[in-house]
C-alpha cells in the first residue's frame, strides 16, 4: 500500500478550502474543487508540485471557477460528476456512483451523495483512509439543500457516516464554528457537543483551521448524523437555515 498522501488545505475566498493531495514517490498532485485557480496553482508551485489531476465534487462556481486556469497552466485532466456536466465547463471524465478513479497510487471510489446539489459526488480513498466530501458533510454540519430533498441528504449523510471511524474527512468549507454554535443550541447540555464547541472556539480564536475531521468525531458530535429519520433531519436542517 502506498504511504498516505501529503495533503495541503489552500484557503480561498472567505471560507473555502481547496485540497491538494501529493504523492512524493511519483510527483502526482491532485487538486479537489479549485474554485480559485490562482490560489491552487500558487500553493502547488510554492511546494515545487505540478497539478496533474483535477477532481470536482459539484458544479458550484466556488468549487469549479478555477478549472480553466489550472488546466491552462498544467493541462491536468478534470474528473467530476457526469450528472452535472452541463452545469460547469471543462469536465473531461464524467463520474457516477461506484466509479473508481486512480489518484496517483491510490484509488478513489466515487459516491453519489445528492442533497446540496443533485449530482454531488464524494471521493473516498479507502486505502489512504480519506474522504473528500465537498459541501455534503461538513465538520459539525452538512450542506444546505439547494437542489435535493431532505430524504436524499439524509441518505447521503447516513452513507458517509458508515465509513470507518478513523476515516479523515476533508470538507470544502470552514463552517465549523457556526455549525457547533447551532449544535449546542439544538442539543443543550450535550457534553460531547459542548466540548467540541469549546475546542473549535479555541482553534478559531488562534486563527487555526478546524479541518480535517474524522468520521468518529462527526458520529459523536455532528447533530445532522443524529437524526433518526429524514423528517427529523429536515426539521434540524430548517433550524440551522434560520439560526443566527
Ligand atoms: Zn456548493
TrEMBL record:
<feature type="binding site">
    <location>
        <position position="135"/>
    </location>
    <ligand>
        <name>Zn(2+) 1</name>
    </ligand>
</feature>
<feature type="domain" description="Metallo-beta-lactamase">
    <location>
        <begin position="15"/>
        <end position="173"/>
    </location>
</feature>
<feature type="binding site">
    <location>
        <position position="116"/>
    </location>
    <ligand>
        <name>Zn(2+) 1</name>
    </ligand>
</feature>
<dbReference type="Pfam" id="PF00753">
    <property type="entry name" value="Lactamase_B"/>
</dbReference>
<dbReference type="GO" id="GO:0004416">
    <property type="term" value="F:hydroxyacylglutathione hydrolase activity"/>
</dbReference>
<feature type="binding site">
    <location>
        <position position="60"/>
    </location>
    <ligand>
        <name>Zn(2+) 1</name>
    </ligand>
</feature>
<dbReference type="InterPro" id="IPR036866">
    <property type="entry name" value="RibonucZ/Hydroxyglut_hydro"/>
</dbReference>
<protein>
    <recommendedName>
        <fullName>Hydroxyacylglutathione hydrolase</fullName>
        <ecNumber>3.1.2.6</ecNumber>
    </recommendedName>
</protein>
<feature type="binding site">
    <location>
        <position position="173"/>
    </location>
    <ligand>
        <name>Zn(2+) 2</name>
    </ligand>
</feature>
<comment type="function">
    <text>Thiolesterase that catalyzes the hydrolysis of S-D-lactoyl-glutathione to form glutathione and D-lactic acid.</text>
</comment>
<comment type="pathway">
    <text>Secondary metabolite metabolism; methylglyoxal degradation; (R)-lactate from methylglyoxal: step 2/2.</text>
</comment>
<keyword id="KW-0479">Metal-binding</keyword>
<keyword id="KW-0862">Zinc</keyword>
<comment type="subunit">
    <text>Monomer.</text>
</comment>
<dbReference type="InterPro" id="IPR017782">
    <property type="entry name" value="Hydroxyacylglutathione_Hdrlase"/>
</dbReference>
<feature type="binding site">
    <location>
        <position position="58"/>
    </location>
    <ligand>
        <name>Zn(2+) 1</name>
    </ligand>
</feature>
<feature type="binding site">
    <location>
        <position position="63"/>
    </location>
    <ligand>
        <name>Zn(2+) 2</name>
    </ligand>
</feature>
<dbReference type="InterPro" id="IPR035680">
    <property type="entry name" value="Clx_II_MBL"/>
</dbReference>
<dbReference type="InterPro" id="IPR001279">
    <property type="entry name" value="Metallo-B-lactamas"/>
</dbReference>
<dbReference type="Pfam" id="PF16123">
    <property type="entry name" value="HAGH_C"/>
</dbReference>
<keyword id="KW-0378">Hydrolase</keyword>
<feature type="binding site">
    <location>
        <position position="62"/>
    </location>
    <ligand>
        <name>Zn(2+) 2</name>
    </ligand>
</feature>
<dbReference type="InterPro" id="IPR050110">
    <property type="entry name" value="Glyoxalase_II_hydrolase"/>
</dbReference>
<comment type="similarity">
    <text>Belongs to the metallo-beta-lactamase superfamily. Glyoxalase II family.</text>
</comment>
<dbReference type="InterPro" id="IPR032282">
    <property type="entry name" value="HAGH_C"/>
</dbReference>
<feature type="binding site">
    <location>
        <position position="135"/>
    </location>
    <ligand>
        <name>Zn(2+) 2</name>
    </ligand>
</feature>
